[in-house]
Amino acid sequence: MVINVSLFRDKFLQIRKYIEAPGEYGIELAFPRVKWSEPYWGQIRRFCEREKLEYRIEREDPAIDIDFLYVDFGQNSAEATARVRQLMKELFGVTEEQLIWCHSSGLSPEDVLVDRMT
Known about the structure:
Blueprint: E1 2-5, E2 8-21, E3 24-33, H1 38-50, E4 56-59, E5 67-74, H2 77-92, E6 100-103
Antiparallel strand pairs: 1-2, 1-6, 2-3, 3-5, 4-5
């Protein structure tokens, strides 16, 4: 799922549900290091350090020069929700009254793998 800030369509936080095996799933935040996000890169790292959130920085595809900062919340969806709300406010200045929009593909709250229709 990608959460975009309504006032800035080019700014977003990405959240994914991953499934390793039956009963082994979790929620992960991903933040790209690209031109638009560069001013926020240090902020999100400091946020993670201040809040004592473990994070890792990885490049998904060696052919594409984009690093991602990942925070794995495991199965704690309440913490993931709270942290995303904090980040939306601290990084992008989003208030509770402002609208955001989300889009998703193959999303399910259950412990199941959702295959995409082709």
